Amino acid sequence: MKTGTIILTASIALLCIFVALSSLPSSSGQNEAGASFVSAKYKTKVHSYTSEVWNFTIHNTNCSGNSADEAQFFLNIYLDGSLWFDEYNDTTRKTWPCSVGKTVSHVYLKDWPEAQPFKHDLRVELYWYYNGTSRLQDTLSFSTSVGVPVSLQHIIPTSYLAVYLMACALLLTYDYVASLAE
Amino acid sequence: MLRGPEARVIALFLLAFVLHQAGIFVYGNNSSFGWFLSLMYVAVALCAVLFIKRESSQFSKHGFLLPGGAGRYVAMAVFFGFVYAFIMIFIPGAISGFDAFPGASLSWGTFLTAGSILLASIASETVFRGYVQTELEADRGFYVAAIVVSALFTLYMFPIASYWTGSLTDLIGALLPFLAESAFLCFFFKEAKTILCPVVFTATVGLLMTFTPLEALNRDYTLALSIVTYVILIPIMQSFVADVGHQDERRDDTAIVESEDQED
To answer: What is the ipTM of this complex?
Structure first.
């Protein structure tokens, strides 16, 4: 193999990696001069009988506060398009502080009392609270599939079991018929 | 200093390894970067094609061929994919119960995921069966090739960045199913002589395991079950492929006799 080909291939690969890594921040990009989500830890699959933990990390780029540059923030969480959690109105602390240039993490818990498997779409909005007004800084969207415990006799596993067995039977029949035809 | 096939194999492996791990790392940190992982799969497959083209230009020697009775080969690979997924999903689930999740919807994301699984199968099989196994088997024999390919395949497949904090016992336990899978695929490629079978098998397993919305509640023994399943499937697969192969040989003999008759 020519050295030129290897160098060309490696260059293309490194370029792809650079392009991807340079655009890693996952949030919506509405944060030109404020605060933004740095990371969000959540599970795409959860169980109906356990609590899910969401860990959101926020960076304050240059949102100022009333004192000591300590700005106040809160989150709104929308579940399937409806407001499910309004931190400002639903909690006693209302807001939490984050100084300019600092990063803070906040943990939220959610129970999923589902009777059927369901996929939920979530949107998290980060607000900066300043002088009695709330200003949207960043949004984050993700989906979570909630699983429910079922036995083999339940309709869902039984139907998939039937599909698997039928597929195997059809493939074996095809193989047998094809061998006879040859 | 390594020369010849070994040097080329290591060069291609390192290239594929870096590209794949970069894809897994980026996708693992941000699930909206599925396109990047797919791009890495395409790059891995293209690297293997470039290596084959530069070395021999004989793609058929590396398994890029459509054998006689291709339909039966595909059906067989899909069948073994179904059998493996069936055992991995329904046996642990029948014992401990299932977690049922919502089924996949017909969305753009579903097609992207399916496409990514297909690309992943093509990329890994082009590199490890198409190039690495063919090169090493010609030089060192099948069993040495299978051991080396399986070790390299395990390193390639394993998400190193996300497992860095795991214990050594967990690490070894998680690596063994990849070794068993690779051993099965090496035998499959050796018997069928086309990468069509390993590609279709891995794609079928990937699609079924991803889109069957059922998980066993207790998955403590799934790693051991995976290894045992692959070990059991090897001789069964060999007998199936031998049957198709005999049909192929008979068809070839008939074709030769017919052509000789025409010459007479």
So the answer is: 0.82
